[in-house]
C-alpha cells in the first residue's frame, strides 16, 4: 500500500491534534489586527491562500498570501508566517532571510531541526502530521485546521465530515474523466487550487482551478462531456445550469470544503494506481525543492 493512502486515512486524527494544539501555540500565531504575510511554495502556498482569505473574512486583519519566491519587500507586516513541511525548501529559507529586523517570524513545519524552524523567531511543530510520501496531504490539511481553530472556528464538523469522506463513494464519473476544473469562492479558492494540484501531480490528470465566478470568463469553453466541474461549496447562481449544455458532470461538495478535499486526495491515488503510477513519488518531483545556489 502506498504511504499516501495511510496518510490520507489518518487525517481526522491529525486534525483533532491540530485543533487541540491551536491554543497552546497562541503566542506564536498572529494576534487580531496584525498585518500578516503567509508564505509557502506549492501545496503550502495553496494553504496560505486559503488561510489569508479566511483570516480576512473573519475580521482578524489584513493578510497577504504569496509564494516564497515572490515576497513583497516594500509592504510592511507585523508578522511573517512560513509554511513548509520539510523546512528545507530553498525559496522559503531565502524568504525567511529577507524578513526585516525586528519583525517576528513563525515557522509552521513538521521538521524541528530544519533551517526554517531554526531561523524563525517561533516554531509551530506539526510532527504528528509528518509524511513519507512526496505528495502532501495530512500535513497541509492539518496546518489549515490548526489555523482555522486559531481563528476561533469550531472545526469539529470538519473532522466529522473528513471521517465521512474517507468512506463515501467517489462522485460518479470521476474515475474516468479526462479533465477536471475545480472551483471555489473566498477561502475555498485555495482549496480548489490544492485539489487541482493533487490530481495533477499524483495522477498526471489534466486539471484547472479558478475562483468560481471566473469560470464563465473563458475556462468553460474547454469543458465537454468527458470533463468534471467540481465546486467546493455552493456554486454561484445559475452556474450549474450553464455547465449543463457542455455535457460535463457537475459536482458540488456538500460538507466542509477541506473535508471534501479528502475525496480528491483519494481520487488522485486511485487514478494514479490505475495508470500504473507511483502516487508516493510522482515523476520529476522531490520531497523538498532544494536548489543549487552557486
Describe the 3D structure.
With 294 residues, the protein is of the alpha/beta class. It has helices at 3-9, 11-21, 43-57, 90-96, 115-119, 138-150, 156-167, 188-203, 239-243, 257-274, and strands at 36-40, 63-67, 79-83, 105-109, 122-125, 179-184, 206-211, 227-232, 249-253. The protein starts with a helix and ends in a 20-residue tail after the last helix. The mean pLDDT is 96. The longest helix has 18 residues, at 257-274. The strands form 2 sheets. It has a 5-stranded parallel β-sheet, with helices on both faces. It contains 10 helices and 9 strands.
CATH class of the largest domain reads: Alpha Beta
Give the topology string: H per helix, E per strand: HHEHEEHEHEHHEHEEHEH
Report the radius of gyration as a whole number of Å.
Answer: 19 Å
Output the CATH topology of the largest domain. Rossmann fold
SSE inventory with pairings:
Elements: H1 3-9, H2 11-21, E1 36-40, H3 43-57, E2 63-67, E3 79-83, H4 90-96, E4 105-109, H5 115-119, E5 122-125, H6 138-150, H7 156-167, E6 179-184, H8 188-203, E7 206-211, E8 227-232, H9 239-243, E9 249-253, H10 257-274
Parallel strand pairs: 1-2, 1-3, 3-4, 4-5, 6-7, 6-8, 8-9
Keywords:
294 residues; alpha/beta; Rossmann fold; 2 domains; 5-stranded parallel β-sheet; 10 helices; 9 strands; 16% strand
